[in-house]
User: Which sequence fits this backbone?
């Protein structure tokens, strides 16, 4: 009797599934992961919620009320070529390689309180919630872990479409907390389960220009690296010290020097931030100072900011924020700031006064999960 009850509970649980995935903000390492350099990001407690109810059809009927879109996908769809940006179908294609084969349909609603196209990875949160739901519903050949969910989401969103992004979004969402991620070949990571008091997201209201900006900056950075690799045997961008940048830059055309300097400088800042997160007591003021240094590189060398973004950051700093920086690909999107205790609302008000569409406190989130 007890065994039959367990089986029934499992069947009932599969009849309704809720897959939850947070957004993320990048603290350090913007425009680093496509170079194989490390990043520090954290999941934030704004979420995408995917609710799936088993139906009697052989389709996934998907409703996205936040953007007013509906679609249906036949579970037996062969999925040969996938239209650029169709991450739901590309996920199904990748999942089949992992032995995840749908055999029943679901009515699915995807909604959330993550801003769209604002630099908090709403699209990646959708992909992670979708992959997590499918793995929970239909299983896979491999053991289902947060790492597997993150890897499949990365393959579906980036590799299948030939996009220029790295692994930061999918892994920081899938595993949660504060993450130091080595984005090179070893793909190792370290998680820090701790709060960041006074963490604020400020939305500019300007849609970010992800693909175009990433492609341009990635191409220039890699040109600089390849040029230096031809001049120096065993050259590795990970091992370049900031003090050697000027000497190495003599081998580069003037137009590539800023991209090389930015890569090395941001890597140096990320390493310093990691040492702070490793300490028993997190000095948020030091983290803020490093965020300011990082933003200056993104603004002055990679030139990914806009006047409104700079005004929002200047406003936050003017009223006492420890640090603030643009997040993500740039040319729009959001900023992240750290406010001292008691000044959170003042910083929020100043970001909005400077032109921000919205600003709010966030907490570090534990990552994607099935509710």
Assistant:
């Amino acid at each position: 009797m007890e065994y039959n009850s367990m089986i029934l509970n499992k069947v009932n649980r599969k009849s309704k599934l809720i897959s939850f995935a947070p957004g993320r903000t990048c603290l350090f390492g913007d425009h680093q992961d496509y170079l194989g350099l490390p990043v520090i990001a954290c999941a934030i407690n704004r979420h995408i919620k995917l609710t799936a109810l088993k139906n009697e059809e052989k389709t996934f009927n998907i409703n996205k009320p936040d953007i007013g879109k509906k679609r249906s996908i036949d579970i037996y769809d062969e999925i040969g070529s996938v239209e650029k940006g169709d991450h739901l179908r590309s996920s199904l294609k990748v999942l089949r390689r992992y032995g995840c084969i749908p055999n029943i349909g679901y009515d699915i609603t995807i909604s959330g309180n993550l801003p769209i196209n604002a630099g908090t990875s709403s699209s990646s949160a959708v992909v992670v919630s979708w992959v997590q739901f499918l793995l929970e519903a239909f299983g896979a050949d491999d053991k289902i872990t947060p790492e597997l969910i993150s890897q499949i989401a990365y393959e579906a969103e980036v590799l299948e479409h030939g996009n220029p992004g790295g692994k930061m979004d999918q892994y920081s969402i899938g595993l949660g907390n504060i993450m130091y991620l080595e984005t090179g070949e070893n793909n190792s990571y370290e998680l820090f389960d701790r709060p960041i008091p006074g963490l604020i997201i400020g939305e500019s209201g300007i849609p970010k220009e992800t693909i175009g900006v990433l492609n341009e900056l990635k191409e220039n950075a890699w040109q600089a690296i390849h040029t230096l690799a031809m001049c120096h045997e065993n050259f590795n961008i990970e091992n370049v010290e900031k003090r050697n940048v000027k000497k190495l830059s003599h081998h580069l055309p003037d137009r590539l020097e800023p991209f090389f300097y930015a890569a090395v400088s941001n890597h140096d800042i990320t390493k310093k931030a990691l040492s702070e997160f490793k300490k028993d007591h997190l000095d948020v003021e030091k983290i803020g100072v490093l965020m300011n240094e990082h933003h200056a590189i993104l603004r002055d060398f990679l030139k990914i900011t806009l006047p409104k973004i700079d005004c929002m950051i200047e406003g936050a700093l003017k009223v006492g924020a420890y640090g603030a920086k643009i997040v993500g690909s740039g040319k729009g999107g959001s900023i992240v700031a750290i406010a001292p205790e008691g000044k959170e609302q003042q910083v929020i008000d100043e970001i909005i006064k400077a032109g921000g569409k919205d600003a709010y406190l966030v907490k570090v989130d534990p990552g994607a999960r099935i509710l």
Observations:
- The longest helix spans residues 210-231.
